[in-house]
Structure formats: C-alpha cells, structure tokens
Design goal:
By secondary structure, the protein is α/β, with parallel strands linked by helices. It is 49% helix and 11% strand. The chain has 2 domains: 155 residues, DNAb Helicase, Chain A (Orthogonal Bundle), CATH 1.10.860; 268 residues, P-loop containing nucleotide triphosphate hydrolases (Rossmann fold, 3-Layer(aba) Sandwich), CATH 3.40.50.300. It contains 19 helices and 9 strands. The chain has a 9-stranded mixed beta sheet, sandwiched between helices. Helix 1 crosses helix 5 and helix 14 packs parallel to helix 15.
C-alpha cells in the first residue's frame, strides 16, 4: 500500500456508492437522496469513485433513475478508463445490502477530514514559510474545525425524561401565555373543539365512503392553514388532477358554483367572486402534487424538499389506498399496514401533522343508523392502530338532514382528546364545509328519526 492509499478506505467509498445503486434498484429514492445530500464528490479520494458520485448527482438533477445504464449514459468513462456502467454494475452486485450505508458514509467523511487536516498542516507550513499573517493561517484552521464539528456522528436513541419534561413545561407555559397554539386550526370551530387542534408528529385519519366529502375536508383544512397565514400546506392528490383541486379551491374561497367553474358559464356576479378567490390564494404557501402511484419514500422525499425550501406545517394525502407499494409485502393488507407505519414515521421525522385520507368499506350501510365505526377502515387494522386520531365523515343521504348537507364527523379515537362527534354543514356546490348554524338534535328528535328538519326548512321549533 502506498503512502497515499493510507489516507482513505476504498471499501467504504465503494460501500456508499453501492448502497446508492442498490437503494435505487429497490425503489427507495428517499434513501438515495439522503445519502447524496450528506456527501460531496470531494469526500471520495479515489478518482473513479468521485466521478461516479458526480454522475449519480447528475442523474438525480435530471430526474433520471439511478442505475448502471443511466450513470453510464451521463458519463461513459471514468478517469481510470473503465466504463462507468461496468463499474456501477459491479458495485450494485458486490454490496450485500443498504443496511450499513451510514457506517460506510461515516468512514468516508472521517477520512476526508483526515486528508483535510493533513493538507491543512502542509498549508500551515507553506503559510509560515511565506510569512503570511497569523490571522490568515488561523482562518484556514477554523474552517477545518467547523467541518469537524459538523460531522454527523449520530444522536443517541434515548433521552433523559427530566430533559423532556423540562422542555414540555416551557411549551405549556408558552401556551398559557398565548405565545403558541396547542394545535393548528382546521377552520371549523366545532371540529377544532373536538380534536383540540392538529398536533405536530401526529397522523389524523379522515375516512368516509366515496362521495362523503373526505377529500373536500382534507383539502379545505390545508387550504385554511395556508391562506389564513398559519403555515405551509402540502397536498398529495393521488386520484384527483391538480386542475380539479384548483377549481375546488376557487369554488370554496369564492363561493362560486363548482359546476359553473367546470363548464365556464359564469354569470356577471361570478367574476368578482372569482377575482376575490384568486386574491385569497395568490402567493399563499399551498403546494400540490397530483402524481399517481407515489410510494412512501417518494412522498417523504417531496415533503423534505418542500420543508427545506419553504417550510412545512401540514401534509394531506388523498388517499392511502392509492399509495404505491414497494412490492415486498405478501398481500394488500400487509402492504397498507407498511404504508401506514411509513406515514407515521414521516410525521415524526418532519415534525408536522399528517392528514391521511382513507376509504371505508360498506359495512356501515348495513348497520342500524348507518353510522361508521373505526373497524370499517378498508383492508387494514394497522391503519386504525397507527392513527393518533380518526375522523369518520358520515352523511346519510337517505335522510332529510343528509340531503340538506348535515354531515357528522365522528371521532372514535384520539390520543389527546376524548372521543366524540360534531356536526358540520356541507356545501357541495361550493366544495366546502362550514360551521353548522343549527343546533344539535334532542334525544326526542333522535328517537323519531327527524333531527334538524325544522331548521333546514327555515322554521324554528316552537
């Protein structure tokens, strides 16, 4: 081994690059982006490894998949003369798994710092020999020390409880003094009282039968948070195209009939409402993605991009049944369980509330009263187990109340509030919910099956 070869570890550099190639082949784009974001080509001492890393970065920059063929198309030959495709294929084959990529990356980063300090020592000798000012020499030393401090050695996986308690007391005090809110507002006062605000690091399941209004509710919450200046919203619509989402937002904010926006037959008084809606949403931090079949790693990656560039305060995903699979689970129930757990991890990692929409099976329609329960969540009990809060959207279209838009939001599970329910008013033509202006039904009205009927007819009950 030459003296220069002692200043790096070839197997660690190849381990990092091989992990990137393997993660990409497994469809874990989030891991690929994590590794690449933590490394630079300067961290790799071997010229072929540095060149391959740059080719990988170029692929990501051009939104190309990362594999032996694509990196070979970006850069055909490596500095040694070997083809990039052949070298990348060898690394993909020789790295057994991606499990140890962090250890490989740590070694590469550490040896890069060793070389930096070696070069710094040489630079100090040159600076002293050239009679440079001490301040200039020390500036170079400070830069190297900063890199050393920034080296990610990993945080412990445990904390002292008194440290957590002390931080919580500060948060409680801030809430008491009104400095911070307990949770983000949904824009619906009775729903806010029910769930006590959307909390960070939590997953709220909003579920309902097709056409119940769950998409309307999810989009409206993100829209309210963004347009009211409460934070940054990100909406993933795996089923509905972005154009339809935009029209729903305009209808909701401008009180314009959604059908009119769709067919373009606006009346004279619709145009001022449209202008008002545009002004309400213009320059507001609400972002959407209508890409179909997104996997959990891809959703995580997009969320990280938004958080890095704009900040992030709430994520809405419509809906869990359309999230793509990595193909490793043996049945759909297991797949959805894995997806559900992955969404919980996103909420914790990014420190945001996630609203995850889901469909209910039709068992509730066969039940007396037709009210859904948490076990009606389609395909996976794991979804029910993972959720911090579950909201079931129930609108009985066979009843007079349901036909007039009365929608009950049932909350059978919540880890930070007692279970309960509230009534909201659905305005279908405006694609929105509003606070219910009537009153809760009396027990007598419930028994005779005619709650709210007088209110909907515009008459007060004597």
């Amino acid at each position: 081994m030459s003296q220069e070869d002692k200043y790096y570890r070839l197997e660690s550099e190849q381990g990092v690059l091989g992990s990137i190639m393997l993660a990409s082949l497994q469809g874990d784009i989030g891991m690929v982006e994590d590794i690449v974001s933590q490394m630079t080509s300067a961290d790799f001492h071997h010229q072929d490894n540095a060149a391959l890393f740059e080719a990988i970065r170029d692929c990501l920059g051009q939104r190309m998949p990362v594999d032996a063929v694509t990196v070979g198309s970006v850069q055909r030959l490596l500095p040694s003369g070997q083809t990039t495709m052949a070298y990348a294929a060898t690394l993909s084959r020789d790295v057994p798994s991606t499990a140890n990529w962090k250890a490989y990356a740590q070694q590469v980063k550490k040896w890069a710092l060793v070389r930096q300090f070696r070069d710094l020592g040489r630079a100090v000798d040159v600076g002293v020999g050239e009679d440079l000012p001490a301040d200039e020499i020390l500036d170079q030393c400070h830069m190297a020390l900063a890199d050393l401090r920034d080296l990610d050695t990993g945080e412990p996986d445990y904390k002292r409880m008194d440290d957590v308690v002390a931080r919580n007391v500060d948060i409680i005090d801030a809430k008491f003094n009104g400095a911070i809110q307990a949770g983000l507002s949904t824009g619906l006062s009775d729903l806010d009282k029910l769930i006590r605000g959307l909390r960070k690091k939590t997953v709220t399941i909003v579920a309902g039968l097709p056409g119940s209004g769950k998409t309307t509710l999810g989009l409206q919450i993100a829209q309210h948070i963004s347009c009211a200046g409460l934070g940054v919203g990100m909406v993933f619509s795996l089923e509905m195209p972005e154009e339809e989402l935009a029209n729903r937002a305009l209808a909701s904010l401008g009180s314009i009939d959604l059908q009119v926006l769709d067919n373009g037959k606006l009346e004279d008084d619709d145009w001022p409402r449209l202008t008002c809606a545009v002004n309400k949403i213009m320059d507001k931090p609400l972002y959407v993605s209508d890409k179909s079949g997104l996997t959990v790693p891809r959703i995580r990656s997009i969320c990280r991009q938004v958080k890095s560039k704009h900040g992030l305060d709430v994520v809405v995903i419509d809906y869990i049944g359309l999230i793509g699979s990595d193909g490793k689970a043996f049945n759909r129930t297991a797949e959805l369980g894995k997806i559900s757990t992955g969404i919980v991890n996103i909420a914790k990692e990014l420190d945001v509330p996630v609203i995850l929409l889901a469909q209910l099976n039709r068992d509730s329609t066969k039940r007396l009263g037709k009210k859904p329960i948490a076990s009606d969540l389609r395909d996976s009990g794991q979804i029910e187990a993972d959720a911090h809060c579950i909201i079931l959207v129930h609108r009985d279209m066979d009843s007079e109340e349901g036909q007039n838009g009365a929608t009950e939001l049932l909350m059978p599970k919540c880890r930070h509030a007692p279970v309960g329910s509230c009534i909201v008013q659905q305005q279908g033509k405006f694609a929105r919910f509003v606070n219910f202006a009537g009153r809760e039904p009396s027990q007598e009205e419930v028994e005779i099956g005619r709650p709210f009927s007088d209110q909907y007819k515009g008459r007060k009950k004597p």
